[in-house]
Write a sequence for this structure.
């Protein structure tokens, strides 16, 4: 194969000019020969390199065919990704190796004509510019006006989302949930909770009745219900009746950034937030024990109705979830 | 066993009609209690049917004043036979008594509190879970948690110890057998996300909790269906106890999801990387992906 490489002809290439006209002259340029100093060692004795690259390309072809089979036969993702990945990688490897090892390598210097125009040309150009701008550009006042109008309208329209993002005011929507006086606690299947539902150490997530399958119910209203002990639990002053039979309920939204506080460690009696490891003691009103949470979790006051089902005594006494500027800052004394 | 002794068994089926009113419920329970001897129900106060309370189960078999089997077509809870108790006492004295007290009551003969807790009245499922997962006997009594390890006792020996401890104060839950034939993995996945994923993570890989404790991996294929059901019903260590809020069929669905999907994830995207989360995945992508590309670029641009 290498015998074919001989110094045979002259290449046609643009000759250096002064920038005028398409003058081309044939100048001699040596192309790659086996004595070319730009050829690497591998290219001077190319049989082995060529064979290797050919092998790589053949394997790449096999991989590509394999990918086709894997796709048609619906093989697993490993086969699909492996075959097309290896195929593309080997194709690229073969091409790059071909260029790197069998082709002449630089650095090459290409001569180039003078870039600057002649003084005459430059004078003529500036004269033309002055003349044309006077005649041609200034005549396009209507087009220019239309462009300016379009740009201004775009600027005004762009203000709309900005202005819209400023309202409407949230009102008290951040302060209230769907928990009301007498709201029945239900699980995700809509079943109510009675005294026997949880044993000591048990936990479940509850929602206001009728809201268990709504986005708002599952995001804002969600509440963890934990049975801490068999008897009534007093978590803080003025909360004597809030946790009957040891059932205590806290908002599931972390007061830090609103993650669901779903990890309950029954021996440590801690609720842990999975996002930033805030820990809340369920026995004393969910006061943060550790982590970035700034406030205790709001507690929901509970009672057993005449059927023995748990209901809320009242709405949450404060906003649930993370803080916001207008938040009413009254909070449980957590110090 | 139940079939062989069918003639002499006291069979009690508190059927649907017995559940119709509160009074009927109360009478069904009291008659069952008589037939089943005294059973410590501390472990299940559930009032819903088929939630692990033997007296609210579709099936209840007692014999000679002892609770033998209860449950339904989703989970059958079986107590190890009383004949196991003799061998169990021997094993208990050899393996457990040094920490839990010779009477398994958490008290040393001198009256002081023993190292380990009182085991009386915890139910045979609790004993079976701690022994078959290898967590008991513990290797390091000062450790904050007894880690899972290859079990020291065989499954049968675990049942023998359970039979002995259960004979001291008969209690529930008994050892569950999960019948997954009609399990709904999709329902199990939803329940897993709501109840389990907070600690065990959404892929079941497990994660660290507070104060050096951790939620163990459920991807570990040594975790059996029985152990998952036991853990949910007994709430070992820091795990909450899932009793009345999950019915037996819901527990079965979660168990099916764990053993069929969590332990055999489909990973349609290729390598699952242990399902430990975006940080590890991003690290691998940066190191191998971008690093590999950089190496290739270096090779392409390098002068030969």
């Amino acid at each position: 194969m290498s015998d074919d490489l001989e110094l045979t002809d002259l290449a046609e290439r643009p000759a250096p000019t002064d920038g005028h006209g398409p003058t081309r002259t044939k100048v001699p340029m040596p192309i790659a020969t086996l004595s070319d100093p730009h050829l690497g060692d591998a290219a001077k004795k190319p049989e082995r390199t060529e064979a290797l690259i050919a092998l790589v390309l053949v394997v790449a072809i096999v991989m590509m065919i394999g990918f086709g089979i894997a796709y048609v036969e619906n093989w697993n993702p490993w086969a699909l990704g492996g075959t097309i990945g290896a195929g593309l990688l080997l194709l690229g490897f073969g091409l790059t190796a071909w260029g790197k090892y069998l082709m002449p390598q630089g650095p090459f210097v290409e001569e180039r004509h003078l870039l600057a125009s002649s003084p005459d040309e430059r004078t003529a150009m500036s004269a033309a510019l002055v003349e044309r701008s006077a005649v041609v550009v200034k005549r396009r006042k209507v087009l220019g006006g239309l462009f300016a109008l379009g740009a201004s309208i775009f600027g005004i329209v762009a203000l709309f989302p900005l202005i819209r993002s400023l309202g409407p005011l949230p009102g008290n929507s951040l302060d209230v949930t769907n928990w009301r006086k007498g709201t029945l606690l239900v699980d995700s299947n809509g079943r109510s909770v009675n005294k026997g539902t949880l044993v000591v150490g048990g936990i479940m997530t509850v929602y206001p009745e009728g809201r268990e399958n709504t986005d708002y119910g599952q995001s804002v209203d969600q509440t963890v219900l934990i049975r801490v002990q068999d008897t009534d639990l007093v978590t803080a002053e003025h909360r004597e009746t809030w946790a009957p039979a040891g059932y205590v309920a806290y908002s599931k939204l972390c007061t830090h950034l609103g993650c669901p506080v779903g990890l309950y460690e029954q021996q440590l009696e801690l609720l842990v937030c999975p996002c930033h490891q805030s820990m809340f003691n369920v026995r004393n009103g969910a006061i943060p024990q550790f982590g970035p949470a700034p406030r205790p979790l709001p507690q929901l006051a509970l009672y057993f109705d005449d059927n023995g089902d748990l209901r809320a005594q009242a709405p949450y006494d404060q906003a649930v979830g993370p803080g916001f500027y207008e938040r009413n800052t009254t909070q449980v004394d957590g110090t | 066993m139940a079939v062989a002794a069918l003639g002499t068994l006291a069979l009690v089926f508190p059927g649907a009609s017995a559940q119709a009113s509160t009074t009927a419920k109360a009478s069904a329970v009291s008659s069952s209690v008589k037939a089943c001897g005294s059973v410590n129900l501390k472990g299940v106060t559930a009032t819903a049917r088929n939630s692990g309370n033997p007296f609210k189960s579709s099936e209840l078999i007692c014999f000679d004043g002892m609770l033998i089997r209860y449950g339904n077509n989703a989970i059958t809870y079986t107590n190890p036979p009383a004949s196991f108790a003799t061998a169990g006492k021997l094993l208990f004295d050899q393996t457990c008594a040094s920490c839990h007290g010779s009477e398994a009551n958490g008290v040393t003969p001198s009256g002081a509190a023993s190292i380990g807790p009182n085991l009386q009245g915890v139910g045979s499922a609790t004993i079976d879970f701690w022994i078959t997962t290898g967590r008991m006997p513990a290797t390091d009594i000062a450790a904050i948690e007894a880690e899972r390890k290859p079990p020291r006792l065989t499954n049968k020996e675990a049942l023998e110890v359970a039979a002995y401890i259960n004979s001291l104060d008969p209690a529930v839950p008994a050892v569950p057998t999960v019948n997954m034939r009609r399990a709904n993995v999709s329902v199990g996945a939803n329940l897993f996300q709501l109840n389990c994923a907070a600690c065990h993570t959404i892929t079941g890989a497990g994660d660290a909790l507070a104060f050096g404790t951790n939620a163990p991996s459920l991807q570990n294929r040594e975790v059996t269906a029985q152990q998952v059901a036991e853990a949910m019903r007994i709430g070992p260590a820091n795990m909450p106890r899932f009793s009345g809020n999950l019915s037996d069929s819901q527990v079965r669905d979660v168990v099916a999801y764990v053993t069929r999907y969590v332990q055999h994830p489909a990973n349609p995207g290729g390598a699952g990387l242990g399902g430990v989360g975006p940080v590890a995945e991003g690290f691998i992508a940066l190191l191998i992906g971008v690093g590999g590309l950089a190496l290739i670029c270096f090779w392409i641009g390098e002068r030969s």
Notes: The first strand of chain A starts at residue 185 and ends at 186.
